[in-house]
Each structure stands twice: as C-alpha cells, then as structure tokens.
Design brief:
Layout lengths: L9 H19 L6 H4 L2 H18 L10 H17 L3 H22 L4 H45 L3 E4 L2 E7 L4 H18 L3 E8 L5 H16 L3 E5 L3 H10 L7 E3 L2 H11 L10 H4 L1
C-alpha cells in the first residue's frame, strides 16, 4: 500500500469540483446530533463550509502537515465552544466523523475505474478524519474539564461567604464537607476579609458541617491559626453534643480554641471582646 505522502490527494479535487453539493449534505448529516437545536442554521452552515474549505487547502492525507494548522485551530475552537454550549463528546466528534459518509460517494465516483486506488484513498481518508476526530474529542474534554474547574471554583466561593456581622466582627458559616481544597479557599477568603475590614474577631459557624473528624478538626485548626497570624481571634460555634463526643473519642485537642454553643453566644462573646454591647430600646408602648 502506498505511503500517505505518496498518495495523490484526490479529495482536494473532489471538494473543489463538488463543494457546493457536498456542503448541504454535510450540514444535513448533523441532524443526528442536536446541532440544529443548539446552533443557528447560519452558524452551522458557516462551520461546515469552513471545515470543507480548510480540508481542501490541506492537500495531503498527512494530518500532521503544517497545511492543516488552520483546520486544527478551527476544530479546537469549535470543540471548546461546544463543550460550553452543551454538546456531548459524541456529538462533537460526529461533526468530523460524519464527513466519511458524506465524502464516500464522491470518492467512489471519482475512482470507479480504479478499485485499488479507491481502497488506498479510502484508507487514507479514514486515517485523516480519525486523527481530526480524535483532536476534536480531546479538545472537547479539555474544555469540559476547564469549565468544571471554573464552576467548582465559583461554587467554592459562593459556599464560603465571609460576612461582616458587626463592626470588627466577621462570621464564616460553613455548610457541607471540608477538604483540603475547600480549606484553602476558606482561608484565602477569610484572610482577605480580615485585612479588608480590620476585624479582630471571627466567628466560624460549623452547624452545617455534617461530620467532624480528625481531618475536619485539622482544617479548622489551620483556619484558626491563619486568622491569628493576621491579628484576629477565632470563635468556633455550632459544635453539637454528638460532634463534641466524637472529638473527645478521637482525641482531638481543641483546648486552645474558643468555642460556644451557637451563633448568638458567639456574637455575645465577640461583642464583649471588642468592647461593644447591644442595648434594647423600649418601644413606644413601653415608654408610655
């Protein structure tokens, strides 16, 4: 069988001669995916026309050729965009693989008198499109992973709000499990807010933490130590009786950490430490 470099690139001539007929067939082949629903007709036609034009310009069956740089860039861009638009990996790869069925009749017609050459051309075409299909799939996966990382980061930031509850007093409600990555996010958000507000007391409310074990306790102690380094005292509230028993059973030492039963008690302690107090003002009826 001739090498890829030795084959005459018949596809280029076919695309140049029958491009206008191939384009609508290529667009129609996308009906098996959700492309018609997720893209406008004009955008889908534009993408298909661009792929055919850059495939024709490649003029070789070698997918690594420099002449295919524009095509590789286009496929990578389309794949990353489709990862965000909601296409599946299979739908994204089908954008390339569907070309096999679209181009087959034209290649068979052009080489009907030379079955051996047809076989060589089909083999080379399959290898070419397989390479570009794999590129499309890999780029899609990279795009999805990047999107997931961005979403995870956004969720972490939303799930670890640091609220200024009073002058000089911050509260950090923690809901859900705590792991190393989330601890890092918590500390970063907390330290930034301490510096921004000049707060001296931080109330960490762990009422929403489903389970506290040695790992979680370690993360909490890291948070307390980090806050202390920037001049803030930390009060941990929301430790239930069950959690307290678990910590004692595990031998976790929290004797150097200020704890209170709930947020109200924690606020009471924080106000006392900052020299503030809440004064109840009688209402109009009580003043009569």
């Amino acid at each position: 069988m001739p090498t890829t470099e030795a084959l005459t690139f018949s596809l280029s001539d076919i695309l140049a001669r029958h491009g206008r007929d191939i384009l609508p067939t290529y667009v129609a082949a996308q009906q098996v995916t959700r492309a018609p629903q997720l893209l406008s007709r004009e955008e889908l036609e534009r993408q298909c026309a661009l792929i055919l034009d850059q495939l024709q310009s490649g003029r070789t069956y070698d997918p690594s050729a420099a002449s295919y740089d524009p095509l590789r860039q286009t496929l990578a861009s389309i794949s990353r965009t489709r990862a965000v638009q909601g296409f599946t990996p299979a739908e994204t790869a089908t954008f390339v693989f569907s070309l096999k069925e679209v181009l087959l009749p034209y290649l068979e017609q052009a080489l009907a008198d030379d079955p051996q050459e047809l076989a060589h051309q089909l083999f080379a075409l399959n290898r070419l499109l397989d390479a570009f299909g794999l590129l499309t799939f890999e780029t899609y996966v990279e795009g999805r992973e990047a999107l997931i990382r961005e979403q995870s980061q956004a969720i972490l930031e939303l799930s670890t709000p640091v609220v200024q509850l009073w002058e000089g007093i911050l509260v950090l409600p923690i809901i859900g499990s705590i792991d190393t990555a989330r601890t890092q996010q918590i500390m970063e958000n907390l330290l930034n807010r301490i510096v921004e507000t000049g707060s001296s007391i931080v109330i960490v409310d762990i009422t929403g933490v489903p389970a506290v074990d040695t790992a979680v306790a370690k993360h909490l102690l890291q948070t307390v130590s980090a806050a202390r380094l920037v001049g803030a005292e930390t009060v941990i509230v929301g430790i239930s009786a069950h959690v307290a028993q678990t910590l004692v059973h595990l031998g976790v030492e929290l004797s150097e950490v200020i704890t209170r039963t709930g947020l109200a008690k924690g606020l009471e302690y924080a106000l006392e430490r900052t020299g503030q107090m809440i004064v109840r003002i009688p209402n109009a009826r009580e003043r009569e």
